[in-house]
């Protein structure tokens, strides 16, 4: 959802704020933004502490380093976005992409640390999706 809202934000910047950048600028900035999102997502995921709770679910918790990686990534992206486009139109898309990658990294790291216990997390997520689907109908 955040990625869709970020895409709409960029679209608005072009139509309502009359943002103008060349195709080459967009490709370069977009590539560097995705690379930054992936790198900082991985750094944040690796800063997490994982453990298994009393219900057998794999849990995670960030620390001060996780927060530092968030601050650096957001501040860096905002700074470059301001310099490049004169706006912060791509921030929401950046946050959506980095959260998606971080989630994947966390799932992978948790699965490596607790390969059997992570199955309980998958079942809980699946049940939650089914409940949400039932409540919509």
TrEMBL record:
Keyword set, alphabetical order: Membrane, Transmembrane, Transmembrane helix
Domain of life from the UniProt record: Bacteria
Membrane-spanning residues: 26-47, 91-110
Protein name: Integral membrane protein
UniProt source species: Lactiplantibacillus daowaiensis
